[in-house]
């Protein structure tokens, strides 16, 4: 007799929690991650093993680092499709520098700067000539990948110092070093966007570019800056991924731009610009990482993983469109 009232009460409680979650949008992502993790642990016990969790966190850290840079671009209403190729090029340049005898810190800095140069080219051409960033970065995607292949004619570069390999997968306080780097960047980018004038101007450009110009914001200069930062973050992710793999290959990070964009969009950023958080981006990368790991553990074919990523981008874009209406 009391089953129906209890059911209604439970439904009401869930509805209230869901409504309150609007005050903290990331809470819904956290809930999805917890539910997804619990279901995966139920289906595949190996998911909760220390080795698997470290592997998942490593994969998440690479995409999240690149996605933080992509967030800045999307906040201004643009997009960068060259992320994956930039990662590969930066990793290859770093690898070639290392085998040529360049010290590890300098080789890594060179790789990150290469990413920044790609970003500068993207931003400068897009703003100087008024070409859509979609078209420009689609072109640099091919150019960067072509250079990466041409540098070694498709050969693999390996034979790095142990310290470089440690940077890619060594553990500090139980966590892989790239995860710590991701967490530091999470804090840094959050402070940058929330508490600096430049961060607020980035949001202003995405919210209303014309109004931002009238308010004195140097839109073109700032647009180039966000592309440079995005390129450097992609470069850093590429360098760390090379250190993790212990080798640089010309086909590294193929399709990574889709994972990065999906992380940003799932994290709540608006593709039209002006809305998004760094925490949301990291949580978005985490959700994608867990689902991809689930597909691997459940022996789902690779092409379904690609299908999932594409479907998620479309679904997130539709949700963003409905939210803005």
Automatic annotation (TrEMBL):
User: Where does the sequence pass through the membrane?
Assistant: 29-48, 55-75, 95-121, 133-152, 172-193, 222-241, 278-297
Q: List localization entries.
A: Cell membrane
Q: Which UniProt keywords apply?
A: Cell membrane, Membrane, Transmembrane, Transmembrane helix
Q: How does it sit in the membrane?
A: Multi-pass membrane protein
Which Gene Ontology terms cover its molecular function? transmembrane transporter activity
UniProt KW Transport keyword:
no
CC annotations in GO? plasma membrane
- Keyword Nucleotidyltransferase, does the record have it? no
This chain's protein is named ABC transporter permease
Organism in which the protein naturally occurs: Actibacterium mucosum KCTC 23349
